[in-house]
Amino acid sequence: MSDEAVEAVKESTTDTPLTELLKKHEAKALATHLDLHTAGDLIYHFPRRYDERGEHTDMHGLQVGEQVTVLAQVQSMTVKPMRQRRGNMLEITIGDGSGATLTCTFFNQAWRERELRRGRWGLFAGKVTDFRGKRQLNSPAYQLLSADATQDEAAEEIEEFAGALIPVYPAAQAMPTWTIARCVRTVLETFQPPKDPLPSAVRANRDLAGIGYALREIHRPSSRGALETAKKRLKWDEAFAVQLTLVQRRARAAASPGRSRPRSEGGILAKFDASLPYELTEGQAQVGEEIAADLAKPHPMHRLLQGEVGSGKTLVSVRAMLQVVDAGGQAALLAPTEVLATQHYRGIGAQLGALGRAGEIDGDPAGTQLTLITGSLGAAARRAALAKVADGTAGIVVGTHALLYEGVDFRDLGLVVVDEQHRFGVEQRDALRAKAATPPHVLVMTATPIPRTVAMTVYGDLETSVLSQLPRGRSPIASHVVPPEKPAFLDRAWRRVREEVQKGHQAYVVCPRIGEGAADEDVEPPSDNEPARRPPLAVTEVAPILEEGPLHGLRIAMLHGKLPADEKDAIMRRFAAGDLDVLVATTVIEVGVDVPNSTVMIIMDADRFGVSQLHQLRGRVGRGSAPGICLLVTESVEGTPARERLDAVASTTDGFKLSEIDLEQRREGDVLGASQSGKHSHLRLLSLLRDAKLITEARAEADELVGDDPSLKKYPELAASVAALVDEERAEYLEKG
Questions:
Q1: Best label site of 142, 462, 621, 703, fewest CB within 10 Å?
Q2: CA atoms 617, 619, 624, 628: torsion sign
Q3: Among candidate residues 459, 404, 399, 398, the one with its CA nearest the CA of residue 433
Q4: Does 4Fe-4S appear among the keywords (predicted)?
Q5: For the segment 100-133, what is each residue's pLDDT rounded down to a tens digit?
């Protein structure tokens, strides 16, 4: 097929190759640069936004900087060479008959001289600029009126051009938005939409447009209202596909075989509960009952446990693990870092006491054994730990990703607890589950609060439990911004550290970077486009300055992820024991580190961290009876997005409110795992926050439809549509969660 002409196509469908519909070079560019190969690919490549030319403007009232559309007549034209570079410039003067004129310039487009002839009337749209006292439009969009048009026809052309919503597409340098728009128009001329996959009852219930109407109006909207109607339908399709997939998978999980791990009377769990020196919070007790009931079922539990920093999630998970051990199984707790894994190992060991030392001299024979597996274990210690895991002696196994390696074999893995699930890839979590003979129960824990609609969309096949209460005795955390316009505040911050140390407490100083030559740790970039600035502050730079300056005389140590494991462990032990006053650290302390005596945290370059990350970090203080304080040091000035983020963090400790702020200010991310698979995201229009009501409605319809027809046999077109939007790989991603 030549570039000059495309063979006539009677009708095209979503599967028709673009090579049959477009010029050869256009089809090749779309495939190469945007991975669009079929009519369906292009039709579902929705505009990112829409420009609106607006009503045409009286030329007397034009303002510099204004986006305008004017109805005018070509009065004169000149072509002249450009002074600063090669090429020529076409300059035309247009007027509306009132005496007002405007200059339009086109660069290296002398061919337009043939159509922009003197006397032609047209509509010209663009931004008004000023050049040497003359108002002008640079390379305006224009539409010339038909020379022989009647007055009514001319009025209709004017209305269509001036009121048009112009689609702006996600584009590539070799395939700009206006070329994509032209290709879409060509395809739409022959495109026959598929049979509407959405059941007519659902369309009627939710007042949704037909698919054909929606696909045409999303690209060539006849009005703002028609565009919103089209968007609503296409957003619904995205939300409904995800919710149907999750509801189906939850239904299949509820029916899949697992192994019941019921609670037993007089077992380790009962002894553990009796030994606790405090009562469970109401939330811990309630969530504990939900998990206990799940574990007793002959189908694998798949539950998400959300809890604010310090809400007691670990205790809830320990009680679940003990129930499984009582039932003859083993439990594994997967932690993202060695620091956190070691902290969990010691913390759980302290909680269990003699119940975690069965077989040892001071152990309770009715208890179990606790084992730690990390990458830094010596050969002999590793062999001993692996033997305990393999023969079942170790009822509870705590570890990092080292648990996933070949050679770590469980006798009877009954429960997998994943801490801070966002730190693990899908494949890593799934690899641990695969070590069980029958699908194990799974408890996923996170201290990063998740907005309801995000949880519904990303974790919709998990049952969700929320711990919102803090344990009795926990103190509130006060947060304040230390801004650049008040330098005295930073001096006061260091004095506050000294005051807390004098009271017998300890402090953290957090920096975004390790130091020269070391890779940065897990720091989220700011969401706004900020100008170039100095490198973020580093632990190895800040610690010596503090030792010699404002914190001179205090016992200071550095902690970051590049230190050897035994050195990190020794530093944490010293800090936990009170042998250090100040820990200058990276985000390695973000999760799980529990030193109740720490009361103050200073976060340097706080604007370099994300909202949720700041919330996690400050949760390291105020974990005892003394109140905590978190000081957010920044060079961001008032009114900038970065400063607004920090002000939001300082204003509330409500993690769910902060998670919504975080989501609003950041890219929502690909909830279907495209970042993992390297494929496109298929949530093109749906916003997890703005479309909360629609997502909730889609969930309700999905529950009802799957309840009546679990495999969607009555709706083959719908099943095919869901498979196209949420392919098998993404469905597995959602299931693995």
A1: 703
A2: positive
A3: 404
A4: no
A5: 889 999 988 888 888 898 888 887 877 888 887 7
Whole-Å CA distances, 174 to 75, 178, 187: 35, 11, 19
- Nearby residues of 6 by Cβ (< 8 Å), 6 or more positions away: 20, 21, 22, 23, 186
Nearest to 630 by CA among 473, 729, 515, 500: 500
Closest listed residue to residue 583, CA positions, set 500, 492, 522:
500
Tokens of 6: 């495309």
Write out the two tokens for 422: 């966002």
Question: 3-class secondary structure for 279-298?
Answer: CCCHHHHHHHHHHHHHHCCC
The encoded tokens of residue 255 equal 């029916």
CB 482 within 8 A of CB 607: no
Hey, what are 419's tokens? 């801490």
* Two tokens, residue 332: 């594994």
C-alpha to C-alpha distance for 562 and 540, rounded to whole angstroms: 12
Q: Are strands 141-144 and 302-307 parallel, antiparallel or unpaired?
A: unpaired
pLDDT in tens, 39-86: 999 999 999 888 665 555 667 777 887 777 777 889 999 988 887 778
Q: Is 177 helix (H, G, I), strand (E, B) or coil?
A: helix
Q: Is the pLDDT of residue 147 over 70?
A: no
Enumerate the H helices of 422-554 as residue ranges.
Answer: 426-433, 452-458, 488-502, 539-548
Please state, in angstroms and as integers, the Cα–Cα distance from residue 96 to each residue in 86, 105, 128, 136, 349, following that order. Answer: 33, 17, 16, 14, 85
Round to whole Å and give the CA distance between 601 and 199: 56
Q: Which amino acid is at 129?
A: T
Beta strands 134-138 and 101-107 are parallel
Q: 144 — phi, psi (to 5°)? A: -80, 135
Q: Which DSSP state fits 172?
A: B
Residue 18 sits at φ, ψ, to 5 deg, of -65, -25
Secondary element (H or E) of residue 82: none
Contact between 282 and 311 under an 8 Å Cβ cutoff? The reply is no
Give the C-alpha separation, 505 to 497, whole Å.
9
86: tokens are 């090669």
Is the separation of the CB atoms in 128 and 135 below 8 Å? yes
CB 615 within 8 A of CB 658: yes
